[in-house]
Write a structure and sequence with these properties.
497 residues; alpha/beta; D-Maltodextrin-Binding Protein, domain 2; 3 domains; 11 strands; 51% helix
Amino acid sequence: MLFIVLASIGIGSLMAEFPSKPIKIVVYTGPGGSIDITARKFASIADKYVDATFVVENKPGAGGIVALKKVLQAPEDGYNLYACTKSNIAKFIQVGGKDYVDELHWTAMLMADPECVLTNVKNDIYKWNDIVTNALQYPGKQNWVGPATGGLDHVTAMKIWDEYGMSAKWIPYKSGGKAIAALLGGQGVAYVGNPRDALGNPDLYIAAVSSDERLDAFPNAPTYAELGVSTLNNEYMWRGFALKKGTPPEIVEWYSHLFQKVSADPDWKEFWERGGIDVEFIGGDEFTDIVKQDVETFEYYLTKSEIISTSNKSGLSKYGEGTPLLLLTIGLIILMVLCGYFIYKSTFSNTLGRMMVIGFFLMMSIIFYLQSFIFSVSSEVGPAVVPRLWIFTLVPLCILLVINTFKNKEDIEKSEIRIDIVLTFIGFLVMYLLIMHYIGYFFSTFIFLITGMIYLGYKNKKVMITTAAIWIAFSYFIFFKILYVPLPIGEWFEALF
């Protein structure tokens, strides 16, 4: 009984104080994106109704995963609000993070922005019926443009193609703005986005919009029902907010009341409705149900298009039904350890010892290659490209070493081979893989490269630091920022990023 009384007092005290410090709205894009504008507009409107300070914090990277990690690493105290969209669900599915959905409390969906197809009036074909006729006449020849592969706009395009019996190519761009620029430059026939994208540009034409009725803001844009298909009238981009699961119910209720007030605010409604957006507050179980339905939809289309793999299509099953990937990997690791032991204890010839070292690295390559099949496949270039780049470099080098070994057998037998150097370097590699979990890919890789070069005898500090820094920069901009490969940030640093 005493515990219950104390707990009640604690909760009451928490609510009396909340919010006692600024609330962070964590946005997964840089400044200027639609969700960033949503977050900042919400903060300005909310100021009318509560005595709270909202701070928008932009955490772009990995398609929203960096921002999500920021929220999930924080306490469940309501001071970190995740500004999210339907596109985040697609990214969760692509990176194998379906469980992320259950780690959030889906607090408020504030708007539904209908999906539409935009065309360029300067193209030879730009009206919807002409696009369909051309696509049916020339299957697979049309280029459709939009942001990212496997995102909401891409999945919407696939739904449209299915309903009309069309086939076309999806050309992804880093952002919607770049995709629209490509459309205006004649590099595509259609762009999938939202009606608001057409504002202020007379060359953009809304060929079809996903809505039950024509939008007041865009009365000339036909609906899919008017164009002969009634199953595409409910495709939209939602934007809203989520809290970390476990946030006290009283704080969730505080937010729910605030979201309802903001949703009904005239300034808020006028700002969004002029872009054809349906402003409506949906929270609690209803919002959660919408998110779960989105999960099923994205899983279906991303699997159908082979953007992601199902368990029975991934791994080595494509090469042999029922091949146990895990057992193969464990077996190779055991063989690799035994090989290393015999190398260390070897009294064989130098040639045989050298061949065993080469075989050791070849087995490591096979292990990394097998493990790369468990990565989620979000596009032709994805997380698996990192280990495979090393593998496709290491294997030819090992083959060249084998050839060189046989060509120089006599010299090798006369030389002294330092097996301890090889084994020590392997030890460095093992330590590198272990500490990566705690300090992340970027920091651990920098340390590994510097340490490895020092051990191999390099003395020029400037060259070592420059080489390591160039690789880290390359990994960050190419893999992390452009390809959205979710390189680990590290358990110790995730709270900071």
